[in-house]
Amino acid sequence: MQWLKYILALMSLVGLWFVGLSLSAFIPLPASLLGLLVLLLGLMWLKRIPPALLKVSQFVLGHMLVLFVPATMGVLLYAEKLADNLLWLILSIVVSTVLSLGITARICQRLWQPTDQPPATPHDD
Amino acid sequence: MLNTYSEQYPLVSAFMWSTITVGVYLLSLIVFRLLGRRPAFHPMIFCIAMLAVVLFYTGVTVESYQGDTSLLTWLLGPATVALAVPLYSQIRSIRGNGLGIMLPILIGGAIAPILALAGLYFVPLDSDVKLSLLTKSITSPLAIETSQHIGGIPGLAVVIVIFTGIVGAIFASITYRIFRVTSPQAQGLALGTVAHAIGTAQGFQMSQKIGAFATIGLCINGVLTAIILPIIFFLIS
After folding, report:
1. What is the ipTM of this complex?
2. Domain-by-domain residue ranges, chain B?
3. For A13-72, how does the pLDDT look when each residue is reduced to its tens digit (9 = 90+)?
4. pTM of this structure
5. Quick check: B23 contacting A, CB < 8 Å?
6. Are B210 and B203 within 8 A, CB to CB?
7. Quick check: is A70 in a domain?
8. Which structural domain, as residue segments, surrounds residue A31?
9. Window 33-92 of B, Cβ < 8 Å to A
10. How many angstroms separate the CA atoms of B217 and B99, rounded?
């Protein structure tokens, strides 16, 4: 019986995506985002997460990477167009990603410390 | 040879290439584990390299491969919906820390594309390539639609999005060590904001809490970029 619930949870994710798709005709946001918001509202209304949905979403999100693979293979299509400046492009993406990661986390940590962890370590800054 | 096969039996070849993709993905997970789960050997790198070799030797074009595996790509939609679950589990901390969440996401969401563009200011790349960088930090279903709006190349935008995600996942731990970021909220939020779904997947590898906060960053930055970027472009042009 348990796996039936898992299938039901999986189908409800697909169903909610279609709900998002039909909503995107009226609201100019991507279907997946609207589906997400509908599910979020539903969970807030339920006030709990159904155990099967929790299990299924953990599984799906844990292996979401595989769904990116086909799109990533598109890199081969643009290899020629980018070949001359590939090194610069890669360097720029790596540097900007690392810097923004560090800066964003740093700002967030500073803003959270007063409310979340009262005794901030003095030697940390 | 396989190309004509694909035309004759579209369902069979769709099933075959989806299975091959999942198989290669599982194989790269095993390799990743065997090599000691070092972030530098991110499973996506092995997976892409291996599939590129397979495509080369079977003579199948990237376009027909992408057509055959469109079901996997489509499933990204329902998978994105599933992000509502970890988001809901953190809803109390979101409500209590509006500024601590919104400000870092706004700043991170703005500096990531700006820094990338600035680094390429003197590099002679076509403007549509440069515009494709602007959506680099948002998750690919959103990036495709937004890139179309602002004159980028959607296919390239997706590649850049995924590359950014892999870079974020690989460099997260070392970046946090250098910047001395210890709080799981900050680690997660930054990962989701800058490195979207792939960063979020890495976050869940680190801990459930980091993953949940990465989801917050992913969702809010995705929505903000999808709304703000077309407006800015509308105003400029």
Report:
1. 0.81
2. 1-72, 97-236
3. 999 999 999 998 888 777 888 898 899 999 999 988 999 999 999 888 888 888 888 888
4. 0.81
5. no
6. yes
7. yes
8. 2-111
9. 43-44, 47-48, 51-52, 55, 62-63, 65-66, 69-70, 72-73, 75-89, 91
10. 13
